[in-house]
Design goal:
The longest helix is centred in the first third of the chain and has 12 residues. This protein is an alpha+beta fold. The termini are far apart. Strand 2 and strand 3 form a beta hairpin. It has twelve helices and 17 strands. The radius of gyration is 22 Å and the shape is globular. It has an eight-stranded antiparallel beta sheet. It has a four-stranded antiparallel beta sheet with strand order 11-16-13-14, with helices on one face. It binds 2-oxoglutaric acid (AKG). The site of 2-oxoglutaric acid (AKG) has 12 residues, from strand 10, strand 12, strand 16 and strand 17. One of its GO terms (biological process) is oxidative RNA demethylation. InterPro entries: Alkb (IPR004574), AlkB-like (IPR027450), AlkB-like_sf (IPR037151), Oxoglu/Fe-dep_dioxygenase_dom (IPR005123).
């Protein structure tokens, strides 16, 4: 379906929206290969900031592109964008081993109840999703016609070939495979739980704490963006999961009490494009690559800047995760590597109060 001219005009109204459309994944409509294989439309990526390249050039000969500077006081290079104060980019902040660790945690422990995920609203709490997908399990709704049924909102994992699944299907009960649910996992929250419907933190909700090792990592990287003499206090984290074609629209993270404290944002898996706009969506955004292991900090004025992720690259040529995939499969077999080769995970850690 083509958008009407009016809708399209409205959608293109702001510089941020235009950039989102520029970088988003679109497919060729009339390619003769169209029926066989959808071909992504080529995109001009020449204007993107590539902090990997910037780091390389800086280490080689000390030069930086116009508008980029290295932050003082960091042990290894941390870059800033001159017209976006409070924004920090730490290329390759996490080692391969650390990346593997947090990918595995993001898929196994972080979505475990009582932490909430996007699936809670439909299925209630789901335990062991990743292992269930690995074991080809199916989530089946409790049969409402059964005498033993107490709650039709109850779902349980069954083996695909179990009588329970066949019976439930015969009776018209809903079922969904764990691997589909894993693909549709879009977010989980740890530490203080963010309530997306009310757009605030609900401190009354039960949760698992942010693991100490992740707190330590966040504190270490946050230090450069903290007000003098203060230590970052990780209180809540949102984990975003991206698959092919998924995007995160331009938004502000404005639900925390004190914007002088940074949000620590960790990228894992496939390479993505990140847009960092200004305080208005009319300000043209900076577009940059985010690779696995990069950390971004947004503090102070940068907390008032629109940002989003219009594109992830899941194809072998552009995803830039060869070494990570290898390390993951050597450490843990194929299941995590299979997931991450077409996915991206973002963990963003926040001081809420
Ligand atoms: O995925 C990212 O890198 C950004 C995530 C983000 O902006 C958010 O969760 O608010």
């Amino acid at each position: 379906m083509y958008e009407s001219a009016k809708v399209s005009d409205d959608a293109d109204r702001t510089a941020f929206r235009r950039a989102e459309k520029q970088y988003k994944l679109y497919y060729e409509q009339d390619s003769k290969f169209y029926r066989k294989k959808k071909l992504p439309k080529p995109v001009d990526l020449s204007a993107l900031l590539d902090f990997n390249q910037i780091l390389h050039d800086f280490n080689e000969n000390g030069v930086l592109p116009d508008g980029i500077r290295a932050a003082a006081g960091a042990d290894s290079p941390v870059f800033c964008i001159e017209n976006r104060p409070g924004f920090y980019f730490i290329p390759g902040a996490l080692s391969l081993k650390e990346q593997c660790k947090w990918i595995k945690e993001s898929l196994t422990n972080f979505p475990q109840p009582p932490n909430r995920t996007n699936h809670n609203a439909i299925y209630g709490p789901i335990a062991d999703l990743f292992d269930s997908a690995k074991a080809n399990k199916v989530l089946v709704q409790e049969d409402p016609t059964s005498e033993t049924c107490i709650d039709t909102n109850k779902w349980k994992f069954c083996d695909d070939d179990e009588e329970d699944v066949a019976k439930a299907k015969r009776r018209g009960c809903k079922s969904v495979s764990a691997s589909v649910l894993l693909r549709k996992l879009r977010w989980s929250t740890l530490g203080l739980q963010f309530d997306w419907s009310k757009r605030n933190y609900d401190v009354s909700l039960p949760h698992n704490d942010i693991p100490d090792a992740l707190c330590k990592l966040a504190k270490t990287h946050a230090a450069i963006a903290m007000p003098d003499g203060e230590e970052f206090r990780p209180e809540g984290a949102i984990v975003n999961y991206f698959g092919l074609g998924d995007t995160l629209g331009g938004h502000l993270d404005d639900m925390e009490a004190d914007w002088s404290k940074p949000i620590v944002s960790i990228s894992l898996g496939c390479k993505a494009i990140f847009l960092l706009g200004g305080k208005s969506k009319d300000d043209p955004p900076h577009a940059m690559y985010l690779r696995s292991g990069d950390v971004v900090l947004m503090a102070g004025e940068a907390r008032e800047c629109y940002h989003g992720v219009p594109r992830i690259f899941t194809d072998e040529e552009n995803a830039d995760i060869g070494a990570l995939e290898l390390e993951l499969s050597l450490e843990s077999g194929d299941s995590f590597a299979e997931y991450i080769k077409t996915s991206r995970i973002n963990i963003n850690i926040r001081q809420v109060f």
